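ugh ok fine here u go
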Amino acid sequence: MHVTRFYTTDDGGSTFDEFDVPLETTSTDAWGNELRFSEAFASPAVRVYEAPPGTFQDWHNAPTRQLCVMLSGVWEIGTTDGQKRRWGPGEVFMPDTVEGRGHTSQVLKGPVRMIFIPVPAEVDIAAWVESGL
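structure:
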């Protein structure tokens, strides 16, 4: 699963990077299909979210590091280095700007509906990022 992450830089700003969640475990189902899985992690508070058309949020931090799975709409994030990226249904991104200046958020086509999956600190996201695309 390909994920775009935005995170806090050393100077307190924000920027994007990308990674694939490693799917290191395989199993074969009863029909002979080989299925691939990531390592499991417990998430403390999965939530469903909706933002109406026209929503704009100026500079703010993510409440926690989390995977966001887009269900509907188009969501745009801006980082302090001047970049903007957009996500639509079926795409995944990871806010990791829990410190610093944060990021901006805007609904370009809505409403935006997504699922938030908090990622606990013990999950080594740095290893995912370093593993390459």
